[in-house]
Amino acid sequence: MSRENPRDRFAAVVRAPDVDLAEAALLMGVEVDAEFDPAEGIAELERLAAAVRARVGPAYDVTKAAEALALVLGGRARFFGQESDYADLRSSLLHEVLRRRRGLPILLSMVWIDVGRRAGLPVYGVALPGHFVVGIGDPDGEFELADPFHGGVPLSVSRARELAAAAGGHPGDPALLQPARPTAILLRVLNNIRAWAAQPERGIEGAWTRLWAVELSLLLPRHPAALRHERGSLLARTGQFAAGAQQLDDYADLVARIDPKVAETARGEAKAARARLN
Questions:
Q1: Using one digit for the tens of pLDDT, what is the confidence trace for 223-247?
Q2: Separation CA 62–CA 199 (nearest Å)
Q3: Among 219, 233, 220, which residue's Cα sits nearest to residue 262?
Q4: Which residues lie below 8 Å from residue 198, measured CB to CB, with a gap of 6+?
Q5: 76 CB contacts (<8 Å, ≥6 apart)?
Q6: How far is CA 106 from each of CA 14, 131, 153, 174, 261, rounded to the nearest angstrom?
Q7: Against a cut of 0.85, is the pTM above it?
Q8: Which of 134, 129, 91 has the alpha carbon at shortest distance from 110?
């Protein structure tokens, strides 16, 4: 794997025509551990994929593929999650999920997606409201759903729609069970990290975590413009007053025509940040 700057590599991966979801997620690990080599995570994913390939064999159907993934990942390797994982940042970092075999639904699904891809199986993410699962097969034809958070148990379409409705979604939405875009998956992971880090008890360390999560989000080809405002605020909070003020002014320029009040607020925050330079 390339030894180029991790941020530059992340930007290249997420803007490639065929996004390597796992590599992008593993590069997030460098943000918390500068010594981590993403190649270690790739090697583990390859090892798991080899075990799945050996179980499936040369000929398979959708059901057999789903069963093989559940046996290897949910059974033998013991990938699963529980409620306490939501309070642990490691549950949102792929290299830690591969090490601990524990994680949030979206990270465990990412393991299934990448292992399936490496094993030659059609596995894709399904972004339900409030939950994340995987589909195996053809989303417009024959497919099965599985829930990696619960060890890969099968999930019926009707149950998936019930989960969506319980979380405030629209169970009849025709796009509900369609494959999630890799960049949308990555943004959702980064949003989870930002939400974790924004809790008051995280203090200044949480601000630094939010900052790198925001900065990686801004490297994605699609991202909310408001992240630029958040970045400016976080730069100021972490003591980078000049850079924060400049980002806040840039954001104000961006939104001035659309929302003058928001722009005015951002300029006020920029002024306050510059005042702290004195």
A1: 999 999 999 999 999 999 999 999 9
A2: 42
A3: 233
A4: 206, 210
A5: 51
A6: 17, 8, 15, 21, 36
A7: yes
A8: 134
- Rounded Cα distance between 169 and 166, Å, is 7
pLDDT in tens, 119-178: 999 999 999 999 999 999 999 999 999 999 999 999 999 999 999 999 998 988 889 999
Rg (CA), the chain: 20
Q: CA 210, CA 137: separation in Å to the nearest integer?
A: 36
Tokens of residue 110, six digits = 């990412």
- Could you give the CA distance from residue 229 to residue 219 in angstroms, rounded to a whole number? 15
Helical packing angle, 182-197 and 6-14, nearest 10°? 140
CA distances from 75 to 61, 91, 102, 126, 194 (A): 20, 19, 13, 21, 31
Q: Which residues pair with 135 in a beta bridge?
A: 124, 145
| Token duo for residue 224 | 């909310």
Cβ neighbours around 230 below 10 Å, total: 20
Q: What is the 3-state secondary structure (H, E, C) of the chain?
A: CCCCCHHHHHHHHHCCCCCCHHHHHHHHHHHHCCCCCHHHHHHHHHHHHHHHHHHHCCCCCHHHHHHHHHHHHHHHCCCECCHHHHHCHHHHCHHHHHHHCECCHHHHHHHHHHHHHHCCCCEEEECCCCCCEEEEECCCCCEEEEEHHHCCEEECHHHHHHHHHHCCCCCCCCCCCCCCCHHHHHHHHHHHHHHHHCCHHHHHHHHHHHHHHHHHHCCCCCCCCHHHHHHHHHHHHCCCHHHHHHHHHHHHHHHCCCCHHHHHHHHHHHHHHHHCCC
Supply 5's token pair: 């700057």
